[in-house]
């Protein structure tokens, strides 16, 4: 059993403790002492146990006595309830009889209210008149106070009537009609309030107290609205015309005012003023900034904080602007108008000139403003702008070229630039137009600027092809009648120089408007434009040289003839003519002028050698050969002198060309025929493109070589080595030698 277990545990614990006390032999002496200590401990524990049990018993005794009392109380209450029940059953009949008293009380309270209201009821017409006067005098607060009194009387009467007999509409209507004028007063007062609200931004500067009064009236009405709605929840009754919702109406009026303000700023139309849109947008900007500054500094103080009037107005302006910008975007705008609109919407609106104005912060945060028009509309406008601009640019370029062509047939020389080079206004006009459009595009954003630049260069590319064709036509027309146009040479020079100007302008345009990383996208079109320009310039130069050589033709025909041998001045005339032309050619820009000089030099030499190869003369004797050869050497010197002068400063070494004439002269001059083969082979080794027919013609002109001798020389030459000058540009290959034709034999 549990008791036994406890005993066992106690013995075991005691054994353990005794064992703990008696571990050393000397402790046995203290056994008596230990026993006494343990006895004391045991006595104290027993005393504590007794005390605890005693207090428990006391508690139980008290509890039992309280339970006994409670039982008696319950019995008493039960008896009382039985008595009450009995009394209540007896008095039900008495309560039934009190209904009349209750009705009398209700009636009394209504009559009391009626008597109270009678004073008011009889004075209604008079109060209405007074209120009307107050409204007309602009004393809105007092007028409203009286109006509230009137409404209060009417509403109380109606409420009493409703409580008494909610079905009785006849009496309700009677009250309503009696107070009919009061409804008109309310409307009249409202009209005055809305006029003040409409002009609030002006009123707040002139008469802020008037605005404050209006706000106070609206606040009072809001309070009454709330009270009436609460009563409706409880009783189901609400007076006519409630809730008035004047606060909501006030915000609607403000919203309409803001919209009208923004729409009303368009004073002009496109017909009356080209700049109508710029003007319209500028007026809007000014109005909005002014209005918001007034709203922030003055208006805000006239309204309770919970109206949040500044932010509400800010939203209204933003909304009205957004609507207006969408309307404008939907109109049929011209290219420059699209730019004005987009630049305003995307940049001006959030700039420091408008919403970013430092005086409007921190209330206005431009980063949290929504866009005025959607990205979709922006994209539509941009694509419309690009397509309009494309057709405009095509038109402008066509017109510029037409105007330029008209200049080409003028009888006055073209203008020269500051360095004296002929030019026309075409490159300046074209690039000024490009510049203007790029600056305009840059107002909107980087991306549009790049697109416009690509468009300009793309159109430039096709324009240059037309320019090339027109230059070609110009040349062909001139060849039909060389007297016309009078200044053909000068205008052709201007066309050539324009090519150089175009090249430089393209580079500077790209440098100014194109980001480095975009460079690659344009390199191919740039290369193709350069190629076209080089082609136009090259064709122009060659057509100018054709002019020179058409004029030289009669003099070139005189070379290597009897007349020439007798002492004609053909070469002198040739030199003077070339120099005269080159006075004009000095107006050609550097890179092209250099090639012109080289080409002229080369062609003069080619024509001279061609004259030799035409076999127009065959020298009769050594005397004539000497005279002819010396004349050739002298003329080569004249050419050398001329072209050195023309190439002055260009650092070109073209001495070698005249050397060929001198080398041929040496072959003709030779007096010892046995050395002829040696002389000819030296000539061939220097100029390896000399053909057999050239040598045959040369020997024919010499006039002393037999057919066999010619044959031998030509056959032997084929085996000889050649050692041409590395800079030598073949010249003989373009010179043909006439073969003996039938008409020649018949002569």
UniProtKB/TrEMBL annotation:
Main location, first listed in the record: other
Domain of life: Eukaryota
A single GO BP: exocyst localization
Subcellular location, record wording: Cell projection, Growth cone; Cytoplasm, Perinuclear region; Golgi apparatus; Midbody
InterPro entries according to UniProt: EXOC3/Sec6, EXOC3/Sec6_C
Keyword annotations: Acetylation, Cell projection, Cytoplasm, Exocytosis, Golgi apparatus, Protein transport, Transport
Any GO MF annotation of the entry: SNARE binding
Pfam families from the UniProt entry: Sec6
Record family assignment: Belongs to the SEC6 family.
Quaternary data: The exocyst complex is composed of EXOC1, EXOC2, EXOC3, EXOC4, EXOC5, EXOC6, EXOC7 and EXOC8. Interacts with EXOC3L1. Interacts with BIRC6/bruce. Interacts with MYRIP. Interacts with SLC6A9.
Biological function: Component of the exocyst complex involved in the docking of exocytic vesicles with fusion sites on the plasma membrane.
PANTHER family linked to this entry: EXOCYST COMPLEX COMPONENT 3, EXOCYST COMPLEX COMPONENT SEC6-RELATED
Identification of the protein by name: Exocyst complex component 3
Organism: Turnix velox (Little buttonquail)
Gene: Exoc3
